[in-house]
Structures are given as structure tokens and as C-alpha cells.
Design brief:
Blueprint (H helix, E strand, L loop, with lengths): L4 E3 L17 H11 L8 E2 L6 H4 L5 H9 L4 H7 L5 H24 L1 E4 L20 H11 L6 E5 L6 H6 L26 E3 L5 E8 L12 E5 L5 H18 L4 E5 L17 H17 L4 E4 L8 H19 L2
Parallel strand pairs: 1-2, 1-3, 3-9, 4-6, 4-8, 6-7, 8-9
Antiparallel strand pairs: 5-7
Helix pairs in contact: 1-10, 5-6, 8-9, 9-10
The structure holds zinc ion.
Length: 330
């Protein structure tokens, strides 16, 4: 039995038809975790859907009303890049409930993993890039609302920048100088502009992502690391280590929300980085170790993953559970 909970429901399945987003990945991860003995049935907890009140902690009443009544404009639906349906609304509300439950369990057990969620491209008033509502932000705001935490940090390692999350948690936001560089480490094309910083309020946002990729407009996170194309394991891990150390020197969160996207993988169809499956597991370990060393609870969401072979995406996500198991014992 794992010393932490995996949050999952068969109803995480996104009814979006034939799509680059492998909607069946959640069930495949669940089944693989059981089949390989990484987890057993009792390690899974089922979420309830988020309430509209929870969703309204982050999203505008107008937007929630449009989603609830099916009155998005054609343009708004196009921008979301997934076909609207009431069933899809239910799936996203359930994923957000899963992230809330993961946050709750993380505060008790040091770590918890939502086998879903990570919809970081959803803004307060609209959805984008396969994301309808921002479960990451909803979970954090709910924990704050319940007075369980005051300060949180997001560590977004999806290959795409966490634009919605950055806007939701934007602070006073004046970009300043580059991060202190790590001794002996140089990127192939060092450019101080690649690393942008801004002040944040009660939620400190870190995003490591490919610069030449969606979204074109990258609103400032507290720390953005704009990575060049084709970066490999070692360079990526150095940048992650650097960003985590810098962020945790400047900010003292009571909860880390780790967005463990599988799409920095070198075989990803929507990504242009060159991480290996092993490198992605080392990435997970690095985040978990940083959280554990400082005794900060960490909740995980899975976000994107569009490997040419869906099985690879499933492996990468299962490895995140493995990494948590190795670092947090059990
Ligand atoms: Zn992504």
C-alpha cells in the first residue's frame, strides 16, 4: 500500500472524440499502476466534482454561466480547442474536484497525486489549449478559502507555459534581471531574456517551458524559464534545480502544486524538447526531493502528454507515481 493517495475516477475520460489529447490516458494509467503492482485498489480515492462555488473562486461568473448553459460563442469554443458538451463540463468539474482532494490529502500525507488535472491554460474568463477550467488554481484557492494554507507555489513542468495560472496568480509583476546562474553550467545559447521574473502575491508561480511553442503570449509567472528547442535531460534538470532553489529561497510555500506534464518528452507531438523517459523521472524526483527536504506538502497533476506512442505517455505518468513512492517511502 502506498503512503499517499492517488485520486482517480473513470469519469475523468474527456469526451472529445478523435483528438491529439489521448482522453483514455487516465484509465490506462490507472490500469497500468494496478497491473504492475505500483499501486493497489485501496491506494485510489474517488473525487467528487468541484462545486460551482469552488470554480467561482477562480473563474468569472459570466464564464461559469456560459459553461453551465452551453452559451459559449463559436470563437470561445474554438479557442478552447476541445468540443463543448455538458458531459465535458462534468469531466472538467470532476478533475477540479480531484485536484481539491489531492491538495487536501497532500496536506495530510506530504504528497498526493491527481491522476488527471493540470489544466493550466484556463484563464478566469475563458478556456484555451484543451483546458476549460483551471483545477490547479481552484485547488489552491479552495485550500486558502478553507484556511488550510496561506501561501502556495506552482511548479509547472509541462512543455507549454502555464499562461492561465500565471494570470490568475499575477502579482505586481515587474520583470527584473536573470536568475543567478549555476556555477559551471551554461546553456548552449545563454540569453538573460530567457529567464523572466516578476513579483507574485500569495501564490508563487514557476514555469519551465519551451520558448518556441504555444502559447505565443506568455504572461509573466513569478519565474519563467524559457527553454530553447531540443534541450536534453541534463540541461533541463539544471534549469529546474536552479528555478526551484531560487524560488524556494525567495518564497516559503505551505503547499507545492507540481504540474507534471509528460510533453517535454522527445517523442511528443506537441513538444520540441528532447527529454528521455528516464530524464522525466529524474525531473519528478528532483521536485519531490526539493519538497521533502523542506517538509513542504506536494500535490501533483498530470497535464499534457502527446507522445507518438500513447504507451510512452502512460509510462511517463506512471513513473511520476514511482518517483513519489521511492522518495516518500512505502
Ligand atoms: Zn502541454
Amino acid at each position: 500500500m502506498l503512503p499517499f493517495k492517488l485520486i482517480y475516477s473513470d469519469d475523468y475520460y474527456l469526451p472529445i472524440g478523435a483528438h491529439v489529447f489521448p482522453a483514455e490516458k487516465y484509465k490506462r494509467i490507472h490500469d497500468r499502476l494496478l497491473k504492475t503492482g505500483i499501486a493497489e485498489q485501496s491506494d485510489f480515492a474517488s473525487p467528487l466534482p468541484a462545486s460551482d462555488q469552488d470554480v467561482l473562486l477562480v473563474h468569472t461568473p459570466q464564464y461559469v454561466h456560459k459553461l453551465r448553459t452551453g452559451t459559449l460563442s463559436a470563437r470561445e469554443e474554438l479557442e478552447m480547442e476541445v468540443p463543448y458538451s455538458p458531459e465535458l463540463v462534468r469531466a472538467f468539474w470532476l478533475s477540479a474536484g480531484g485536484s481539491i482532494l489531492a491538495a487536501d490529502h497532500a496536506l495530510k500525507d506530504h504528497v498526493a497525486i491527481n491522476v488527471g488535472g493540470g489544466f493550466h491554460h484556463a484563464f478566469p474568463d475563458h478556456g484555451e489549449g484543451f483546458c476549460m477550467i483551471n483545477d490547479i488554481a481552484i485547488a489552491i484557492r479552495r485550500m486558502q478559502h478553507d484556511n488550510k494554507i496561506t501561501r502556495a507555489m506552482t511548479v509547472d513542468c509541462d512543455v507549454h507555459q502555464g499562461n492561465g495560472t500565471a494570470v490568475i496568480f499575477a502579482g505586481a509583476g515587474i520583470p527584473s534581471g536573470p536568475l543567478p546562474s549555476r556555477a559551471g553550467f551554461e546553456l548552449a545559447s545563454p540569453d538573460p531574456a530567457r529567464v523572466r521574473k516578476a513579483h507574485a502575491g500569495d501564490v508563487f508561480t514557476i514555469s519551465l517551458h519551451q520558448e518556441n511553442n504555444y502559447p505565443a503570449w506568455k504572461p509573466p509567472s513569478s519565474i519563467d524559464v524559457d527553454l530553447p528547442d531540443e534541450i536534453g535531460d541534463d540541461d533541463y534538470l539544471h534549469w529546474l534545480d536552479n528555478a526551484l532553489s531560487s524560488g524556494l529561497r525567495r518564497f516559503d510555500p505551505e503547499l507545492i502544486s507540481y504540474v507534471a506534464g509528460a510533453d517535454p518528452y522527445r517523442e511528443d507531438q506537441l513538444g520540441g524538447l528532447s527529454l528521455t523517459i528516464e530524464g522525466l523521472k529524474r525531473r519528478d524526483e528532483l521536485v519531490f526531493q526539493a519538497a521533502k527536504a523542506r517538509n513542504i506538502p506536494v500535490m501533483v497533476t498530470f497535464a499534457g502528454g502527446y507522445a507518438r506512442v500513447v504507451d510512452d505517455t502512460v509510462t511517463i505518468h506512471c513513473n511520476t507515481v514511482m518517483a513519489a513512492k521511492e522518495i516518500f517511502g512505502g
